[in-house]
UniProtKB/TrEMBL annotation:
Region (Disordered): 1-31
SUPFAM superfamilies (alphabetical): GIY-YIG endonuclease
Coiled coil: none
Basic and acidic residues composition bias: residue spans: 15-27
Superkingdom in the source lineage: Bacteria
Organism encoding this protein: Hyalangium rubrum
Entry-linked Gene3D superfamilies: GIY-YIG endonuclease
Record protein name field: GIY-YIG nuclease family protein
Length: 136
């Protein structure tokens, strides 16, 4: 069967529709992640409604030299190389039991707990201090 075969295209669109339906029924895990520089111990904490997507995006941006949010992280990536870094999921937010839950707010709270715990600022990490901490 060649790629010009209408049956091949129909099978491909059926598969795509099936993948879309699966995605809608089971959304990707959401939660908090860390990028850890094993060479110097610094970490970057982040969160996302799509953990696998966020980790792939950060890794891609660092690999291509396009990570603009954390320039010090990009600089260390260039200096130490990819093998010096690990990408880890710290916490997964369970799917909401009730409709209408504010997932972004729940994620923000979970991330702030991890920021408080790891304090990835200054010499310890790549994150910038939240406004309420710097205002104290």
């Amino acid at each position: 069967m060649s790629s010009n075969d209408p049956g091949a295209r129909r099978g491909s669109s059926t598969r795509r529709a099936e993948l879309k339906q699966n995605y809608k029924e089971k959304p990707p895990p959401m939660g908090v992640f860390v990028v850890r520089n094993r060479a110097n111990g610094k970490v970057m904490v982040g969160s996302s409604l799509n953990l696998p997507g966020a980790l792939n995006r950060v890794r891609f941006e660092l690999t291509t030299g396009m990570h603009r949010t954390y320039p010090a992280l990009q600089e260390d990536w260039q200096h130490h190389g990819a093998d010096a870094f690990s990408f880890e999921v710290l916490d997964v937010l369970p799917p909401p039991e009730e409709p209408g839950a504010d997932l972004k707010e729940e994620l923000r709270v979970l991330e702030s707990l991890w920021l408080e715990r790891l304090r990835p600022y200054g010499e310890a990490g790549y994150n910038t201090l939240p406004d309420e901490v710097t205002a104290r």
